[in-house]
From TrEMBL:
InterPro entries: DNA_ligase_ATP-dep_C (IPR012309), NA-bd_OB-fold (IPR012340). This is DNA ligase (ATP). Its EC number is 6.5.1.1. GO terms for biological process: DNA recombination; DNA repair. GO terms for molecular function: DNA ligase (ATP) activity. Residues 4-38 form the DNA ligase ATP-dependent C-terminal domain.
Length: 44
């Protein structure tokens, strides 16, 4: 992951994707919505 920039999480979202490429990237990813029923603290 050359050139990656890390940030503090602020929201939880749903993402759908079709699969992974050979170089470990998401294939055909799409944003499905913000998860207001979940807290960022649950994932830290």
């Amino acid at each position: 992951m050359n050139g990656a920039v890390w940030a503090q999480p602020e929201i939880i979202v749903d993402i759908e994707y079709r699969g992974w490429t050979q170089d470990h990237q998401l294939r055909h990813s799409s944003f499905k919505g913000i998860r207001e029923d979940r807290s960022v603290c649950e994932f830290l």
